[in-house]
Amino acid sequence: MKQKCQVCGERAVIHITQIEEEGAASQLHFCYRHAQDYLKESDNPSSSPASGSSEEEGVPETSVACPVCGMTFAKFRETGRLGCPNDYEIFRTELKPLLENIHGNLRHVGKVPKRLPIDARRQTELIKLRQEIQQAVAIEDYERAALLRDQIDSLEKEEKRPSE
Q: 20 to 30 A Cα–Cα from 63, which one of 2, 71, 78, 125?
């Protein structure tokens, strides 16, 4: 059963279990916006969660919307889906820690089939090395680029040997 936000009735995406001093547990359910307000109130007891808006400091993602599809980061947090490919660029800073937490990496590495022929593996490795050398040159890491160039040369020589 989907929980509703205790404040506004929207779909709850943050669930907090509080352990009281007596050992009793209470559960709180909030949408993203009201969870932020609740957490701010916990850090600063003088503020009220009802008085704050989602566009206060610390929650900039709700004020930015994709110019293509109109998606906001708060809406993404509610639905779990982005609206268009442009959203990856618009919400880059918010998505990076989320993707790294979920996938353990920011770059899709993929898998190579175990029964892939040796030539195809070598070609895959060459493609990967060529991409890495372009990145190294772009950041002006010429020592790494030289090492990668040497690896590419040795793989290309191996590739020519069997056919001769």
A: 2
pLDDT (tens digit per residue) in 141-160:
999 999 999 999 988 887 66
- pTM given for the model: 0.34
Structure-token pair, residue 132: 């890495």
- For 77-114, how does the pLDDT look when each residue is reduced to its tens digit (9 = 90+)? 888 888 888 888 888 888 888 877 777 777 777 776 66
| Coil, strand or helix at 11 | strand
Q: What is the dihedral of CA 148, 150, 156, 158, to 10 degrees?
A: -120
Strand partners, 60: none
Residue 40 falls in which region: left (phi positive, over 0), alpha (psi -120 to 50) or beta = alpha
**Backbone φ and ψ of 80, nearest 5°:** 80, 10
What's the one-letter identity of residue 131?
Q
* 68 and 84 Cβ atoms separated by less than 8 Å: yes
